[in-house]
Amino acid sequence: MKQSAPLVSVVTPVYNGGKYLADCIESVLRQRYENWDYTIVNNCSTDDTLEIAEDYARRDNRIRIISNDRFVSAIENHNIAFRQISSDSKYCKLVSADDWLYPECIEQLVRLAEAEPSVGVVQSYPINIKEVRWSGLPVTCSVFDGHEIGRLYLLERVYLTAPSANLYRSTLVRSGKSFFPGSRESADVEACLRCLQHSDFGVVHQILSFERIHDGSVTRKSVSDSYLLDRLALLLEYGPVFLSQDEMSQRLEDALEYYYGVLATAIVNARGGRYWKYHKERLTELGFRFYSSRLGRALLFKLGDLVLNPKQTLEKGLRRVAHSA
Fold first, then answer.
1. N vs C: which end of the chain shows fewer Cβ within 10 Å?
2. From CA 142, how far away is CA 153, in angstroms rounded?
3. Are the C-beta atoms of residues 66 and 84 closer than 8 Å to each other?
4. Cα gap 263→269, rounded to integer Å
5. Of 137, 235, 244, 246, whose CA–CA distance to 193 is shortest?
6. Residue ranges per structural domain of the chain
7. Domain 8-219, architecture per CATH
8. 325 residues of the chain, pLDDT tens digit each
9. Rounded Cα distance, 131 and 172, in Å
10. Residue 126 β-bridge partners
11. Inter-helix orientation angle 187-196/146-154, to 10°
12. What is the 3-state secondary structure (H, E, C) of the chain?
């Protein structure tokens, strides 16, 4: 693509990502879209991350390396990366250090964004070793009303984001000090919800990125079921923005019913004291009481399900033993 094309600032925040970082960088270098700059933010890595990044930077002057002088959280490292985007960039493309892009990724995302000025976030389909993560939106349309997408996401009818699958307008990234707000793992979703209050949503109906899932990924570290409380937090904050009063009430009730069902499973699985302390404290922070009676009803339902489905119960038990081994 010609240099007259809009500048895309690509960013990769990384901590101890040496195992996969070269694949990530190579995928950026292989882009058919040529007008980009690339900033890698090293968060005090103790492996060979910095050496790998510096080697590529020496070979291509579009790549630069920023090294933090102190270790920060993953979300803050993302925000440091977002603050590095060029003032001349029209778009920002995040690529997680253990993911990679197909060669036509940036080209296709920018093409849609350029054709539709109202679109603030463009999403494509990521693929991993298990599945293609599809948005759930009709393939006959590529541009959707932002407010409606926010509503459908909170109602759990569409899948909103995988960070490496998205392109953002740089004006939205630069609109505040922290593009990924707060410290929750769902900060990327919250960033999209903020964008959708003021812009539309675009979808390129193609697989354009690979999402790596492994033992060291954030996804695998969500062992405390914290994502459920993050969902509740998002619903409390953005439900009044995107949902009607009736939708909000019903969605909150459904979310709590599912949440207590997961807690009942945690009892069956003999989760420890730290698990329960975490959930009680987070519920209090969100303004909820911990309802023992509701948990008791959910546990009775769970135990009844286990008794009535012995084959399924045995299979789950065997899988748990195998996983522990």
1. C
2. 17
3. yes
4. 10
5. 235
6. 8-219, 222-324
7. Alpha-Beta Complex (3.90)
8. 454 899 999 999 999 999 999 999 999 999 999 999 999 999 999 999 999 999 999 999 999 999 999 999 999 999 999 999 999 999 999 999 999 999 999 999 999 999 999 999 999 999 998 889 888 899 999 999 999 999 999 999 998 868 899 999 999 999 988 999 988 888 999 999 999 999 999 999 999 999 988 654 444 444 578 889 999 999 999 999 999 999 999 999 999 999 999 999 889 888 999 999 999 999 999 999 888 888 888 888 888 776 667 555 444 544 443 433 3
9. 30
10. 209
11. 140
12. CCCCCCCEEEEEEECCCHHHHHHHHHHHHCCCCCCEEEEEEECCCCCCHHHHHHHHHHHCCCEEEEECCCCCCHHHHHHHHHHCCCCCCCEEEECCCCCEECCCHHHHHHHHHHHCCCEEEEEEEEECCCCECCCCCCCCCCEECHHHHHHHHHCCCCCCCCHHHEEEEHHHHCCCCCCCCCCCCCHHHHHHHHHHCCCEEEEEEEEEEECCCCCCCCHHHCCCCHHHHHHHHHHHHHHHHHCCHHHHHHHHHHHHHHHHHHHHHHHHCCCCHHHHHHHHHHHHHCCCCCCHHHHHHHHHHHHHHHHHCHHHHHHHHHHHHHHHC
Amino acid sitting at position 197: Q
Q: What would the two tokens of residue 89 be?
A: 């960039």
- Do the Cβ atoms of 31 and 60 come closer than 8 Å? no
Q: Which two tokens stand for residue 193?
A: 């919800």
- Residue pointed to by tokens 């953005």: 238
Residue 191 burial (CB count, 10 A): 27
Q: Parallel, antiparallel, or unpaired: how do β-strands 100-101 and 200-210 relate?
A: antiparallel
What pTM did the predictor assign?
Answer: 0.87
